[in-house]
Design goal:
By secondary structure, the chain is an all-alpha fold. It has helices at 4-7, 11-68, 71-84, 88-124, 131-137, 141-156, 160-186, 192-217, 229-260, 263-276, 281-299, 303-330, 332-336, 347-362, 366-372, 376-401, 403-429.
Length: 445
C-alpha cells in the first residue's frame, strides 16, 4: 500500500525516496553485517595484524581502481542515457564492451601487483610479512572490478533493489559466510594471509551473484548493437584520473601511516576510518537512485529537475547523517570499544574524520553532478588539488600527531574538495544542492 504522503510529492522526489528506502534497507543490512564482520576480524587479528591486512587491502584497492580504467562512471553515463531512450541495444553493447576491457585490464594489474609485492612490503612499508597478504589480495582485483561494473550497469537501469543487494547486503554476507566456514575448520587462529584468502573466496562468489542479478533483472538488454570502444575509453580515461585521484584522497592517510608509523597505528586508524565512513553511508545509499536520474535528466535538458533531485539528495543524506555524527562527537569511545579496548585510542581520529564525512553528506551529489554533466575535467582538477593538499598535510601532521594528524589532514582535504565542488556546480549549472539553499536555476544545460 502506497503512503499517501508520497502521492502528494513531486514525481522525481517520490522515485528518489522509494529508491533510497530500498537501497538504504540493503545497505543498512550490509552495513550492520559488515560492521560485525569488522569487529570479529579486529578481535581475531589485533591491531598489528589488522594493520597488515589493511595495508594489503589498500594495495589491492589501488590496483582495482586502475583495473577498472574509469569504466564504472563511463558505463553508468552512457547506459543511463541509453536506458532513458529505451535503446537497449546500446545498453547491451556497453555491457559487453566494458566487461571485456575491464577483464583484460584487471588481469594486467593483478600480475603487476603480485610481482611488485616484495618491493612494496619490504622497501615501502618495511614489513616483510606483508608480501604474502598483498599477493593473495591481488586475486580480488578482477572479481571486485567486474562486480563493481555490474553494479553500475544495474544502477543505470534504476534497479535500486538489485544494486543495493549487490553493493550493500551481499558482499558482507558472502565474506561472513566464508569466515564462518574458515573458523569452523581452522579455529580463530587466523593470520592476515588467512583473512586475505577469505576475501578472495568471497569476491569470486560475488561474481556469480552479479551475473545472476544482471541476467535476471536486465533481460531486455540482449540486443546486438555496436558501440565504439574508443568512445567509451575517451570518456573512461579522464574518469580514471578522477577515480585515481579519489583513491589518493582515500588511501594517502593509510599509506603514509604505514610508511612513518607502525602496523599497530594503521590498525587503530583503520577502525576509526571504518566507523567514520558510516556517516557518508546515507549519501551512498541515496546516490544509488540519484546518479542515473541526474544523468538521464541532464541528457534530456531538464535542468530544473536536476536541481530538484540534487537538492533532495543532499537534504536526505544530511538529515540521516547528522544523528550519527553527533553521537560520534559526544561518545566516540563507545563504538571504538566494540573492536577491543586498545582501539579507544583512536577517539580523536574518529571525531575529526566524522566532520569531513558530514560535510560530504551535506553537499550531496556534487561530484556526480560534475562527472555526469560533462565537467569531468573540472572535477579532476579539483580532486588533484585536494589530493596534493592531503599529501602535504599528512606529511606535516603525521610525524607530530600520528593517527590524529592523518585524520585531520584527511578531513580538511575532504571538506575542501566538497566546498570547491559545490562552487563549481553553481558556476557551471547554477545549482546549489545543499539543504535549504535558495533555488537559482538558469534555463540552460
Amino acid at each position: 500500500m502506497k503512503l499517501k504522503v508520497l502521492g502528494r510529492l513531486d514525481f522525481h522526489l517520490r522515485e528518489l525516496l522509494r529508491g533510497t528506502i530500498l537501497a538504504f534497507a540493503h545497505r543498512a543490512a550490509g552495513m550492520a553485517i559488515g560492521f560485525l564482520l569488522s569487529v570479529v576480524v579486529a578481535q581475531i587479528l589485533g591491531p598489528h595484524d589488522l594493520g597488515l591486512y589493511a595495508l594489503a587491502g589498500t594495495c589491492a584497492m589501488i590496483a582495482t581502481v586502475l583495473g577498472k580504467l574509469g569504466l564504472d562512471n563511463a558505463m553508468l553515463k552512457y547506459a543511463s542515457a541509453g536506458a532513458t531512450r529505451q535503446d537497449w541495444g546500446q545498453v547491451a553493447s556497453i555491457y559487453r564492451l566494458g566487461m571485456a576491457i575491464a577483464t583484460a585490464a584487471s588481469g594486467v594489474t593483478t600480475i603487476t601487483l603480485v610481482l611488485l609485492a616484495p618491493i612494496i612490503a619490504e622497501r615501502l612499508f618495511s614489513e616483510p610479512l606483508l608480501t604474502a597478504p598483498i599477493r593473495i589480495m591481488a586475486l580480488t582485483i578482477a572479481p571486485n572490478s567486474l562486480v563493481a561494473l555490474h553494479g553500475e550497469m544495474l544502477r543505470s537501469l534504476k534497479l535500486s533493489g538489485a544494486v543495493g543487494l549487490l553493493q550493500g547486503s551481499l558482499p558482507p554476507i558472502a565474506a561472513f559466510s566464508v569466515l564462518g566456514i574458515a573458523v569452523a575448520l581452522f579455529g580463530t587462529d587466523l593470520t592476515p594471509s588467512g583473512i586475505a584468502w577469505i576475501s578472495v573466496v568471497a569476491a569470486i562468489g560475488m561474481i556469480f551473484f552479479a551475473l545472476l542479478l544482471w541476467r535476471h533483472n536486465a533481460p531486455q538488454a540482449k540486443q546486438r548493437e555496436s558501440f565504439e570502444a574508443t568512445r567509451l575509453l575517451r570518456t573512461s580515461i579522464p574518469l580514471l584520473w578522477i577515480s585515481s585521484l579519489n583513491l589518493i584522497m582515500g588511501a594517502t592517510d593509510t599509506v603514509m601511516l604505514g610508511i612513518w608509523t607502525t602496523a599497530d597505528q594503521v590498525g587503530l586508524y583503520g577502525v576509526a576510518a571504518r566507523l567514520a565512513v558510516l556517516v557518508s553511508f546515507p549519501l551512498v545509499a541515496v546516490n544509488t537512485i540519484a546518479a542515473p536520474k541526474l544523468a538521464g535528466l541532464h541528457a534530456t535538458g531538464e535542468l530544473s529537475a536536476v536541481d530538484g533531485v540534487a537538492r533532495n539528495t543532499a537534504l536526505i543524506s544530511f538529515s540521516l547523517s547528522l544523528p550519527l555524527s553527533i553521537f560520534y562527537w559526544l561518545r566516540p569511545e563507545l563504538g571504538l570499544s566494540l573492536f577491543g579496548d586498545e582501539f579507544v585510542f583512536a577517539a580523536t581520529a574518529l571525531s575529526l574524520l566524522t566532520a569531513g564525512h558530514l560535510v560530504n553528506a551535506a553537499t550531496g551529489p556534487v561530484g556526480n553532478l560534475l562527472m555526469l554533466t560533462g565537467y569531468e575535467k573540472t572535477m579532476r582538477n579539483n580532486i588533484a588539488g585536494c589530493s596534493l593538499l592531503n599529501i602535504v598535510m599528512n606529511i606535516v601532521l603525521i610525524p607530530e600527531f600520528g593517527i590524529s594528524g592523518a585524520a585531520g589532514a584527511t578531513a580538511l582535504s575532504l571538506i575542501t574538495m566538497n566546498i570547491v565542488s559545490l562552487i563549481m556546480v553553481y558556476r557551471h549549472l547554477a545549482i546549489i544542492p545543499v539543504p535549504f539553499a535558495p533555488t537559482r536555476t538558469r534555463n540552460r544545460v
